Amino acid sequence: MPRRTMIEAIRDAMDVSMGRDERVIVYGEDVGFFGGVFRATQGLQAKYGKSRCFDAPISESGIVGSAIGMAAYGLKPCVEVQFADYVYPAYDQIVSEAARLRYRSNGDFTCPIVVRMPTGGGIFGAQTHSQSPEALFTHVSGLKVIVPSNPHDAKGLLIAAIEDPDPVIFLEPKRLYNGPFDGHHDKPVTPWSKHELGEVADGHYTIPLGKAAIRRQGSAVTVLAYGTMVYVAQAAAEETGIDAEVIDLRTLLPLDLDTIVTSVKKTGRCVVVHEATLTSGFGAELVSLVQENCFYHLEAPVARVAGWDTPYPHAQEWDYFPGPARVGRALIETMEA
């Protein structure tokens, strides 16, 4: 299969979807002629015209609000918010309108929109270009939330999201845009150094929403992660020599609870890793679910490794991230508990 970066895979997903369905339109800030700040939409306007791939004003509320209206009238908008940090002006549209449209209309209307957002840090983007706000969306009934970790999944999940009849929040880890992150770092490295391109099939394929993937088989402890943290978890397992089973959640809503429960009941231990702030992060929900479903199988408390409870600290960015050393300590402590 061809080997692509995540950016190329995401672009290919939109290209395939636009070619298969004329109702699919792509727009957002600088996504038309410029091709997006990360070039995710490069070439789409030239191929499909300005009526199907175009620039929008710098108004996130306007971008998402107009997409909801278009979706209600039968289109399938895939819009880009340039950075996840910029989504807050659009949050009311997402929560009060997109997530509720099917329910408040008793099924007369659906809202098949995708809101794409680069998320997370690692590119020296400071406080307003580096946040991980996934928990703000996983709390909202009616939304689906996706965080891919590799190019193959990014394409298949994005096509599935575009074809889904309900609103999907598609969070793209910026550190993975130019290839899978190898994870063996606690300090800054060139974001795309030592990366490998992922195998991505040509043409149309989908990955079912709500299905996790086991990235590393193990029997001693289960590690739940998503996005960039999948690679950090794998690196921590390798560096500590602990027989950890690493689960890439891929979709946070709907969540593949069956895969999680099966793994934790096998290992008896669990560590949850995410880049976002610890308090009220999505990891708290994962810990609760593991405790509720696996309590009598647990040999140790469920551990969390996450970002600090501070505004995003640009000067200490790489200390803020859970790295293999921090995750490794959590694995060792969980095994010794």
Summarize this structure briefly.
This protein is an alpha/beta fold. The chain is built from 12 helices and 14 strands. Strand 13, helix 10 and strand 14 (303-307) form a beta-alpha-beta unit.
What share of residues are in beta strands?
15-25%
Low-confidence stretches: 190-195
Average pLDDT, rounded to a whole number, is 93
Head-to-tail CA distance between termini: 44 Å
Count every helix, treating DSSP H or I runs of 4 or more residues as helices. 12
Largest sheet: 7 strands, mixed
Element string (H = helix, E = strand): EHEHEHEHHEHEHEEEEHEEHEHEHH
From the 3D structure, determine the CATH topology of the largest domain: Rossmann fold
Strand order of the largest sheet: 3-2-4-5-7-6-12
What does this structure look like?
By secondary structure, the chain is of the alpha/beta class. It folds into 2 domains: 3-199, 3-Layer(aba) Sandwich (Rossmann fold); 213-336, Rossmann fold (3-Layer(aba) Sandwich), CATH 3.40.50.920. The protein has helices at 6-20, 44-48, 60-72, 91-98, 101-104, 134-138, 151-163, 229-240, 257-267, 282-294, 317-320, 324-336, and strands spanning 3-4, 24-28, 53-55, 76-80, 114-119, 144-146, 168-173, 198-199, 213-216, 221-225, 244-248, 251-253, 270-277, 303-307. The strands form 3 sheets. It has a 7-stranded mixed sheet with strand order 3-2-4-5-7-6-12, sandwiched between helices. Strand 10, helix 8 and strand 11 form a beta-alpha-beta unit. Helix 1 (6-20) packs parallel to helix 7 (151-163) and helix 9 packs across helix 10 (282-294). It is globular. Mean pLDDT is 93; it is low at 190-195.
